[in-house]
Amino acid sequence: MLQPTTATRRDIIATNAILGATLLIAAVGTVTIGGAWYFQYGLGLAPCPLCLQQRWPYYVAIPLAFVVALGAKANAPRAMLRAGLVIIVLAMLVGAGLGLYHAGVEWKWWEGPTDCAGAGFSPGGAAGGLLKRMQETRVVRCDEAAWRDPLIGLSLAGYNVLISLALAIVALVGFKQSGKV
């Protein structure tokens, strides 16, 4: 049986670190977005503007994680794969920041954006049109958590902070492990 050379072992370890990290990020990210969609479409909890913004980092990280995983399997240059992990780290840190900001708005630690409170409503037009617009307008407030964990009181924004930080750490560990060899 042939023994792999030291260089080959290093490449295998680096590839496995990148592949493992990106597949985990893609899986957990997909489950997280699936959960958000379940709360929205399955349970009827309409997301506020901040909730929707918190999904953006996942929409970057999930496909990028798949691309980096495919690149790792195809033996793409390690520098490119590691750059993809850095982008994932940054995207998930942005996600954690958005989640922290939203959780702070929910806990009334600071003010949220005005479009989350319905302050931007402009009556304009005839009185009948105003009544119709008021009946059709559904304001989803950012400062009221649509759901909280009954055991520990975390909202979905709070869970997003934890998940985003965990995924950023996974990407960072994959980055560091792939550079050690």
Automatic annotation (TrEMBL):
GO function terms (MF aspect): protein-disulfide reductase activity
A Pfam family that the UniProt record links to this protein: DsbB
Keywords associated with the record: Membrane, Transmembrane, Transmembrane helix
Membrane topology type: Multi-pass membrane protein
Protein's GO biological process: protein folding
Taxonomic lineage of the native organism: Bacteria, Pseudomonadati, Pseudomonadota, Alphaproteobacteria, Hyphomicrobiales
Gene3D superfamilies: DsbB-like
InterPro entries membership: DiS_bond_form_DsbB/BdbC, DsbB-like_sf, Uncharacterised_DsbB
One GO cellular component, as annotated: membrane
Name under which the protein is recorded: Disulfide bond formation protein B
